[in-house]
């Protein structure tokens, strides 16, 4: 790794004439690294990017590029080191993509602005890098948001910068283009050694693509480091003031917690068989209790993120009859029982006792799969047992039963 930072800040304070937005920023940006700026609306991401790119003077503190004070760097010299992609939707009409990307060559062309063959090559290479070479003769104003975003990045690349600053590069883009733009930016870091600094709203994506994340909120830097270290569940909740959501560090996703205002359902699951049902039941407003789960089960991680009450086996051992007894008490207090059709291996066999108990208690039981996989439920005389093949049908059945 190249250990010399391209861009650094010390005691930087950014904002506007009458308004300080962020203070005490000590940041270093290195070649080949993807850095995401994260923070709630109005935290100061754009203000910071505008200050780093010399569009806005710092209120105090220092910004250096390759060790030189930013304020002393001439704008044409800066353009050879840094390019900036700010949020913009408007495109001037009658502007060919080729000419627009060619504008990015201005730090390298002579004062006449005439492009030579090297500049032509640079324009085409930039378009290639963002997989937009086919757009070269299109009118800019006719492009879709995703195509235009790629062209904006191509123009930034045509400057041949060491660092690119982008403000919300995936705004207005659909999922496919969002992923494509992120993968293009990641490729620029890995293959061209460019440092990419982008403000992002999607913490899940940031966790997956970034080498470093900068967390800002309430006028200050909250954390700066690798997403694996920094994006802890509590930190993300605090950053965005989550009250009904939770970032799951292990799965790298955000689960939404819904208010439970329906019946209480006990889910007998495990080994990943219950996660989809947990989400669906929570979404529908059911109060879910589940168990007995081992602490390394993916169902446990999903249930915890959803705020579902989990009965867990303390040690990573065989689920004990003692743990199952604890779960029986919780099961008694539930209106409906769901058997996810979990595979029974040695470790979780005891959970079958929960199904037997539910039968004895004459609780309505809804099962995924087929009766032949569940010996104790494979009897024609059982009236309060239903089998389905999909989670959505199963929850429909629960709803029907609840209404009846
Ligand atoms: N020109 C300006 N003059 C004064 N205050 C401004 C100006 N532009 C933005 N602000 C304020 O500065 C603060 C930071 O705004 P900024 O746009 O940097 O936040 P952000 O993190 O980029 O927000 P978002 O995620 O909503 O885009 C906000 O309180 C905003 O109202």
From TrEMBL:
Protein name: ABC transporter, ATP-binding protein
Ranges in a coiled coil: none
Top-rank lineage group of the source organism: Bacteria
Xref: PROSITE patterns: ABC_TRANSPORTER_2
InterPro entries: AAA+_ATPase, ABC_transporter-like_ATP-bd, P-loop_NTPase
Record carries keyword DNA-binding: no
Species annotation: Desulfobacula toluolica (strain DSM 7467 / Tol2)
Boundaries of every ABC transporter domain copy: 7-243
Functional description taken from the UniProt entry: Part of the ABC transporter complex HmuTUV involved in hemin import. Responsible for energy coupling to the transport system.
Record-level Gene Ontology MF annotations: ATP binding; ATP hydrolysis activity
Signal peptide: none
The entry's keywords: ATP-binding, Nucleotide-binding, Translocase, Transport
């Amino acid at each position: 790794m190249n250990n010399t930072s391209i861009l650094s800040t010390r005691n930087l304070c950014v904002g506007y004439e009458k308004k300080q937005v962020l203070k005490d920023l000590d940041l270093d940006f290195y070649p080949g690294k993807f850095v995401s700026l994260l923070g709630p609306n109005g935290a100061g991401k754009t203000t910071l990017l505008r200050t780093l790119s010399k569009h806005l003077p710092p209120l105090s503190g220092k910004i250096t590029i390759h060790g030189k004070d930013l304020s002393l760097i001439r704008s044409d010299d800066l353009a050879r080191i840094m390019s900036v992609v700010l949020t913009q939707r408007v495109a001037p009409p009658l502007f060919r993509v080729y000419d627009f990307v060619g504008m990015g060559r201005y730090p390298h062309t002579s004062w006449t602005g005439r492009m030579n063959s090297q500049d032509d090559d640079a324009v085409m290479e930039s378009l290639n890098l963002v997989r937009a070479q086919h757009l070269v003769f299109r009118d800019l104003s006719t492009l879709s948001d995703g195509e235009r975003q790629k062209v904006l990045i191509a123009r930034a690349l045509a400057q041949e910068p060491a660092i690119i600053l982008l403000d919300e590069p995936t705004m207005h883009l659909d999922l496919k283009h969002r992923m494509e733009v992120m993968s293009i930016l990641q490729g620029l870091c890995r293959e061209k050694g460019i440092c990419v600094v982008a403000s992002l709203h999607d913490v899940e994506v940031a966790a997956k693509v970034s080498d470093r994340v900068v967390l800002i909120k309430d006028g200050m830097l909250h954390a700066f480091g690798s997403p694996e270290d920094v994006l802890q569940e509590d930190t993300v909740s605090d950053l965005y003031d989550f009250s009904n959501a939770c970032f799951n560090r292990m799965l790298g996703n955000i689960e939404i917690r819904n208010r439970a205002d329906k019946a209480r359902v006990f889910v007998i699951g495990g080994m990943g068989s219950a996660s989809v049902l947990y989400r669906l039941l929570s979404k529908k407003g059911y109060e879910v209790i589940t168990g007995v789960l081992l602490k390394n089960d993916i169902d446990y991680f999903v249930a915890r993120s959803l705020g579902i009450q989990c009965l867990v086996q303390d040690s990573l051992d065989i689920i004990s009859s003692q743990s199952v007894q604890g779960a029986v008490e919780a099961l008694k207090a539930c209106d409906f029982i769901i058997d996810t059709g979990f595979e029974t291996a040695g470790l979780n066999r005891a959970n079958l006792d929960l199904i037997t108990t539910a039968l004895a208690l004459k609780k309505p039981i809804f099962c995924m799969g087929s009766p032949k996989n569940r010996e104790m439920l494979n009897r024609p005389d059982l009236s309060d047992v239903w089998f389905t093949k999909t989670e959505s049908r199963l929850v429909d059945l629960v709803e029907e039963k609840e209404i009846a």
